[in-house]
Amino acid sequence: MSLKDRVYFCPSCKDPLTIVYDDRELKERAEVGFHGKGVWRYASFLPFKGDEEKISLNEGDTPLHVSVNIFRELKLSFLAFKNEGLNPTASFKDRGMTVATTRAKQIGSKVVACASTGNTAASCAAYASRANMLCAVVVPEGQIAFGKLAQSIAHGAKIIKVKGNFDDALETLLKLCEENEKIYLMNSVNPFRLEGQKTVGFEIWEQMGRKMPDWISIPVGNAGNITALWKGIKELKGTKLADKVPRLLGVQAEGASPIADAFHKGLDVIRPIESPTTIATAIRIGKPASWRRALKAVRESRGYMVKVSDEEIVEAQKVLARKEGIFVEPASASSLAGLKKALDLGVIEKGSSVVAILTGHGLKDPEAAQRLSYEEVSVKPDPPELAKVLRI
Ligand code: AN7
Q1: Would you say the CB of residue 276 lies under 6 angstroms from ligand 1?
Q2: CATH class of the structural domain 93-192
Q3: What is d(CA 392, CA 385) in angstroms, rounded to the nearest whole number?
Q4: Do domains 64-90+193-371 and 93-192 have the same CATH topology?
Q5: What letter would DSSP give residue 198?
Q6: Where would I find the beta strands (DSSP E) of 204-320?
Q7: Consecutive 10-residue averages of pLDDT for the chain (392 residues)
Q8: Where are the domains of the chain?
Q9: Choice from 82, 137, 225 to test ligand 1 binding pocket (greatest atom count within 8 A of CB)
Q10: 64-90+193-371 maps to which CATH number?
Q11: Straight-line distance from the first to the last Cα atom of the chain, in angstroms, rounded to the nearest whole number
């Protein structure tokens, strides 16, 4: 099927569309190789000719922090954290947004929109500003972290709060987009989003010296990111650039785990969760749009799905911040919480090499940080009193 401007779903199976390159095309792309920095370093694997105006904020090129403390406790031979919170708007969404906004510009869109638990909105708003487009973000009222809302405000997006959850927001916007040709949809059902997001797999592979780890752990909400990660990995393997593929560990929050549940029941369909709950508001999603592709990715990779409780998420957030110096939002911490669970279950063997993807920065959700235990004392502006307190 050729690329139509505003068609997002397959008319027969109703799944979101995927951009597919045939083997010959992939080989040609691999021969062009990788040049430059960030997401656009992988332009040879992106669906553009090269002469279009790129809408970029220097996304990608995020650090792969090798664990200095936790890996020992977890008895892993290697553990690293892919810190996607260090993207321009502080989440992994920017990888997909640079590509989708470039596409929006190419097809002459003036208005972009997304439904969001917060990060997609922040990213979409920033890239729309850069591209001189109007941006509307449709968010579940009272359910998105303040840092993310602040970003949408700052970038001048039109903020529409839906009285309902994320799934209601997405469903409503999708229906509107079916009728309204003016809006270009920036959710991960837009196949260009996934093209950008797949570059995280390319980067991990390059940063590890053109090697793949045994496992990659990744939080799963609407399931676009895990779908994109697997697509990129398969393309690398398909061109024989990578000699092996990692196994994928998809992590969901206990109160929002339709894909993990289907995986464990051996089902080929998910049972949507009507009222998802978790403190990890980014992944408070009950009807993930890319569930089928995510299940397929996990199964094809001989991977696994786990669900983690809010307590486990908070604990992982604390451990990352206090033992590795990396402050992430709760949804991101779920990739470490899930890794710990998979190790406890014996799904991931001791001595394995693992990369955990940390999807968003801790400052996105300042309220969540207050759930971590901490000490604070007030003193008068008086050196002796300060000294007394410091001696504890
Ligand atoms: C920090 O912003 O869905 O499985 O609307 O913000 O690709 O959905 C965010 C998702 C993980 C899950 N970590 O990724 C949105 C939104 C963070 C996130 C996910 C999200 P997907």
Answers
A1: no
A2: alpha beta
A3: 12
A4: yes
A5: T
A6: 215-219, 247-253, 304-308
A7: 70 90 90 96 95 97 97 97 98 98 96 98 98 98 96 98 98 93 95 98 98 98 98 95 96 98 98 97 98 98 98 98 98 98 98 98 95 92 94 74
A8: 64-90+193-371, 93-192
A9: 225
A10: 3.40.50.1100
A11: 68
